[in-house]
Design brief:
- This protein is of the alpha/beta class.
- Helices cover about 45% and strands about 10% of the residues.
- It contains nine helices and six strands, in the order ααβαβαβααβαβαβα.
- It has helices at about 5-20, 30-40, 55-65, 75-80, 100-105, 110-115, 130-145, 160-170, 190-200, and strands at about 50, 70, 90, 125-130, 150-155, 180.
- A six-stranded mixed beta sheet has the order 1-6-5-4-2-3, sandwiched between helices.
- The two termini are about 30 Å apart.
- The model has no long low-confidence stretch (mean pLDDT about 90).
C-alpha cells in the first residue's frame, strides 16, 4: 500500500515530467503543486513567477505574528487557520467604511479595502486572489510611502487588469518577495492554496 510520502514523491515526479517544475525554486515545490492541483492545468507552471526569498519572508512574518491581509472573503475563508499560528487573517472588503471610501477615492471597493489595511500592512503577508484593483492600489500606496509588506502572493484572475497587475509584480514594482502567475489565470482558491502550502510547510 502506498504511503503519503511516496504519493507526494510520485505526484511531484509527474508534474516535473509534465510541466518542467524543476526550473522554479525548490522551496516553492509544495505551493506550485497545490496551485496546479487547484486549477487542473499542468501548463500553469510556465506562467508562474516567484522570488527566491518568498518562503523565508513568509516564515519571518508568521513567526512575528504579522497579519495575513486578503483582498476578499473567499481568500480569507480559504486560509487554513492551522497554518497561521498567532497571525490574524484579515479582509476589509465588507467593512462598513468601504463603500463611501471607494466613492471618495474614485476606485473599486477592493481598492478601498486596501486603504483600510493601514499600518497593519507593515511586515504583513498580502494574499490577493480576486481583484487586480487591489494590487494596483497597493502599488500606489507603496509608492506614496505606505508601510511595506513582507511578501505578496498576487494571483488575481480575469480579463480586465489581471495580467497587467501581475506583470508589474513580477517586474519587482513592490520591491518585496512575491509569487504570481502571468496572464489571466489565477483566482482566490489558487492564492489561498499557495499560501497554505507554503505556511503549512513551516509548521514547527
Amino acid at each position: 500500500m502506498i504511503n503519503a510520502a511516496e504519493l507526494a514523491a510520485q505526484r511531484r515526479e509527474m508534474f516535473v515530467h509534465a510541466a518542467q517544475l524543476a526550473h522554479l525554486p525548490k522551496s516553492l515545490d509544495a505551493a506550485i503543486v497545490a496551485m496546479i492541483e487547484v486549477c487542473g492545468m499542468v501548463d500553469l507552471v510556465v506562467d508562474i513567477r516567484a522570488h527566491a526569498g518568498l518562503v523565508a519572508a513568509i516564515d519571518s512574518a508568521l513567526l512575528a505574528g504579522r497579519p495575513v491581509l486578503c483582498d476578499c472573503e473567499m481568500v480569507r475563508e480559504g486560509i487554513d487557520p492551522a497554518v497561521v499560528g498567532e497571525s490574524p487573517v484579515i479582509s476589509k472588503l465588507n467593512d462598513p467604511a468601504v463603500p463611501d471610501l471607494a466613492l471618495t477615492i474614485g476606485n473599486t471597493r477592493s481598492a478601498a479595502a486596501v486603504d483600510l489595511w493601514g499600518e497593519a500592512l507593515g511586515g504583513a503577508i498580502v494574499v490577493v486572489g480576486n481583484a487586480p484593483t487591489a494590487l494596483f492600489r497597493l502599488y500606489e500606496l507603496l509608492e506614496a510611502g505606505a508601510p511595506r509588506p513582507a511578501a505578496i502572493i498576487g494571483i488575481p484572475v480575469g480579463f480586465v487588469g489581471a495580467a497587467e497587475s501581475k506583470a508589474l509584480l513580477a517586474e519587482g514594482i513592490a520591491d518585496v518577495p512575491y509569487l504570481t502567475v502571468l496572464g489571466r489565470r489565477g483566482g482566490s482558491a489558487m492564492a489561498s492554496a499557495a499560501f497554505n502550502a507554503i505556511a503549512g510547510g513551516l509548521i514547527r
